[in-house]
Amino acid sequence: MEKLTNEEIREKVRQRYASAITAKTGCGGGSGCCASGAGKATAAITGNLYTADDVTGLSPDLVETSFGCGNPTALTPLYAGEVVLDLGSGAGLDVILSARRVGSGGKAYGLDMTDEMLATAHANKTKLGVTNVEFLKGTIESIPLPDESVDVVISNCVINLSVDKDAVFREINRVLKPGGRMAVSDIVTLKPLPEWLRQNLAVWTGCIAGALSVDEFKSKLRNAGFADPSVEMTRVYDPVDLGFDPAETRDAIGSAFIRAQKAKQVLQSGVDFQIRPATAADFPAIQALLTAASLPVAGVDAASGEYVVADLAGKVVGALGVEKSGGAALLRSFAVQADFRKRGIGEALVRHVLGQLKFEGISPLYILTNTAEAFATRFGFVKISREEIPAALLAASTLGSACPASSTCMKLE
């Protein structure tokens, strides 16, 4: 059997998805990832991936032109101000969902090699009026972005289509910032596939023939520099639904969530940066940090509360404020510059403030957050209702009106 060349595979993939999007055939119509012209196969793999809440306000056409096998935007927290990259972004659904979550201070990139896909994605961006989205043309083996420029890389049933997966994982590691995350949904194999199937172009463009095994995924990610990759199976497909011989492919093909994190480069407080009280001259920088993180700036000035900053070579790269009332305190206005997140600065700010409040005998402590619930839990904060926060604290901070009702309220005794 003559083996397929990389050029043959890439060109067939390009043609396949150009045709799929031009025909406006969605996941239920027989074209797209995980199908080779068979509607049953498409429905088996691409159906029921997004909840109604996920796609509120989006047109059915946009959802139907997602050719994926999962919802990568649900795999990892996306925080305000972060930069997200979607590999093989297609018509742009996952890019637009990511852009919603990172807010106006963040950005979502979509990378695709197919002109027809990019044209549709640009049209969807314009139609929705999304401003923090940019679509790029290129291959996922050579990402057209600088080193350490992205917080999160996502992908939806695309890596299996690559002809050089080692290059893909090296590129993901290159563009991720220290501590950055990879969260993808993809097809995986659970046992070896027949060679005839591996060499079938239609099956390759249908996301099956090029799929990695669970062990191959982990091994290649480790070789690319990721320390602890994980593969979480989400579905195992019935070979009859995929149009394959059950005797050869039973329990052999599934989809999974694959996660990995780039090694962090932790900075040391007192060595690489200093924690110090904020001065009046720091507040423009503090307000800029909050704005970039889509956090309220109302009441943030030298006359309100007490603030500390992380000072790195004379530049304010993090800030945290405290409002005190009646022996209790509310932590507020917590932000770290995007380039320095996950490097120990946020933790140093919180530990400094908690230590100072403990020394002063102030307790309990409260916090309202939209993005840092998991982070606050590490310090012992627990969720409470908004009504449990003393009204005087909320009034003093103006956060009672500035923070949305959906904010998570937390308490530390």
3D structure, described in words:
This protein folds into 2 domains: 6-261, Rossmann fold (3-Layer(aba) Sandwich), CATH 3.40.50; 274-412, 3-Layer(aba) Sandwich (Aminopeptidase), CATH 3.40.630.30. The chain is built from 16 helices and 15 strands. It has helices at residues 6-22, 39-46, 60-64, 93-102, 115-128, 165-175, 195-198, 201-205, 214-223, 239-242, 246-249, 283-292, 345-360, 373-377, 391-397, 399-402, and strands at residues 83-87, 107-112, 133-137, 150-156, 176-189, 212-213, 230-236, 253-261, 274-277, 306-312, 315-325, 328-336, 365-369, 382-384, 408-412. Helix 1 packs parallel to helix 5.
Kindly provide the name of the CATH class of the largest domain.
Answer: Alpha Beta
Oligomerization: single chain
CATH fold field value of the largest domain: Rossmann fold
Number of helices: 16
The N- and C-terminal alpha carbons lie at a distance of 69 Å
- What CATH architecture label of the largest domain applies? 3-Layer(aba) Sandwich
Q: What ranges have pLDDT less than 50 throughout 5 or more consecutive residues?
A: 25-32, 34-46
